[in-house]
Amino acid sequence: MMAYSEDHIALAAEYALGTLDADERAQVENMMSIDKDFTAMVQAWEFRLGVLNQMVGSVEPSPQVWDRIKTATGLSGQQAPLVLPEPPSAPPPAVPEVVAPVAIAADNSNVIRLSAQARRWRSVAAATSAIAAVLVAMIGVGAWQPDLLPDALRPKPRTQVVEVKAPPLPAPPSAQYVALLQKDGGSPAFILTVDGTTRRFTIRRVGPPAELGKSYELWLISDKLQRPRSLGVVGSGEFTSRPVLASYDADTIKDATYAVTIEQGGGSSDGKPTSPPVYIGKLIESVPSR
To answer: How confident is the model at residue 119 (pLDDT cuts 50, 70, 90)?
Structure first.
């Protein structure tokens, strides 16, 4: 690829900007017809500057501007009809094809007047400064006042949907009930607690003596029921917990009498107590509901 001087580069840029006069444009087009690399450089400038033209919306000049242009160019008055010259009577003699004009055109492309160089560089510098100013202004307007830009140049709004989930409210504490199961007002042998919401009971063994080959069984006794209902055998551990009270209504649970009998190993076989109650107690509310 041929190495071009700054004058050639400026000439190509000004041709793309459209600021050359007719003679200079003819000179550039002559160079483009014989130099493919120079043609590619001109096209590259046209591409760079053409992109900037797409960023600005078209504006129709006012009629006053057109009138001033016509006056400055001498076209404001009535124009004389165009008269074409008469064709020659005889064709001109044929000119033999020679290579010399191509070489002369190539040499003429390197002749650029000093005044034209200065004017071109001033035009390129002014155009570059104007382009940079337009870009800076567009960036600033797009950031602070995008409504002033044309629709095609406005930044696309970005919408972000944020789902905010409120933390679940803590469940209010349920009422708690407790009963001391004891014998004849003596020390409690078992402590029974019932959760008012889940109706799950927990019975704690405090200090009843172990019965060899026997089991302690817990019973619910209520006037609403025809007979005592078994709540299961008390385990050998310190605590025994079961959800069996969930099948009874709240009033029955709160008003019932709870008793522990001594049954055969594993509990009553027919669901009925086989001995009188040894330890008895009733529930009282230890923690109120909120």
So the answer is: low
